[in-house]
Amino acid sequence: LLGQILDHWFESEPLKATLATDAVIGAMASPHTPGSGYVLLHHVMGELEGRRGAWGYVAGGMGALSHAIAQAAAARGAHIFAEKAVCHVLLGRAGEARGVVLQDGTEVRSKLVLSNASPQITFLELIPQEQLPKDFVQRIRQLDTRSPVTKINVAVDRLPSFLAAPNARDGQPLPHHQCSIHLNCEGTQLLHQAFTEAAHGHPSSRPMIELCIPSVLDPGLAPPGCHVVSLFTQYTPSVLAGGHSWDEQARNAYADTVFDCIEDYAPGFKASVIGRDILTPPDLERIFGLPGGNIFHGAMSLDQLYFARPVPSYSGYRSPVPGLYLCGSGAHPGGGVMGAAGRNAAQVALKDFRHL
Questions:
Q1: What range(s) does the Amine oxidase domain occupy (predicted)?
Q2: pLDDT of residue 57
């Protein structure tokens, strides 16, 4: 259990709770949920420029990372079709992958197909079900994709000033503005209570909030004097109690709760807001193809990791369809911006390609 790990190493409850947020990020789980310790490990493994466990901001926003990968691929002869939705995977007579069909009917033929879509989209929507083993399809349908995340993007006309460390008179960013700021994390019990509310179908009344201001380090993201604030919040259930949906009223009511909490720490924040974009779990699923809104394409729980990701006997990137590989967050080792699943899948695909 995560709580036991943190209690062993730390005494300060606010410190333990702040560290605990990385154990429940993107997970419909409490710090007291068995297996949560692994999720913390997953978020602090690796390194950035030689600094172990460090995280960084991508200059130009996260899209710049995809753009850099695309440029590197194009420089080596890759053809990239942007904004072209894939309708289904093209299969040969023996049931092997032979390319993809786009929504406009265009066929893109290839010897191999790698999918970084979720396992559900890849195998339940892009492949005819009769081409897959029944037990495999059942396992994919049963994957836990619950997500507690509501992402709120905010535009503000001034830098937030926190009671704990007020801004200087010149309004220049301070060290904490360049970091991840964790709110409503004074104790792990607060996180557990927030989880419990969502488990019963109610958005947390005191949500866990991770606040970042990327424009402090990357001024080009906002006009002079203004900033963009990224709020990663939880817990919000995909389906509300009583079967209610996330309509405009429910979305704004939850966002108001989040903003009220921030106002308690940084008075004047609400008055600085120019605009906000609220993405609940159903929004994340609809816009980005994340099943259940899950940022990892499936829970990072012990029963869905390592040799069981996405399902047992198919954790090695290959699939029941010859020539079709899974290379996204739904494959080993799971979510996070590290590219490990893609690199591993590419190695397997290259090995197979030599025998085609």
A1: 34-179
A2: 87
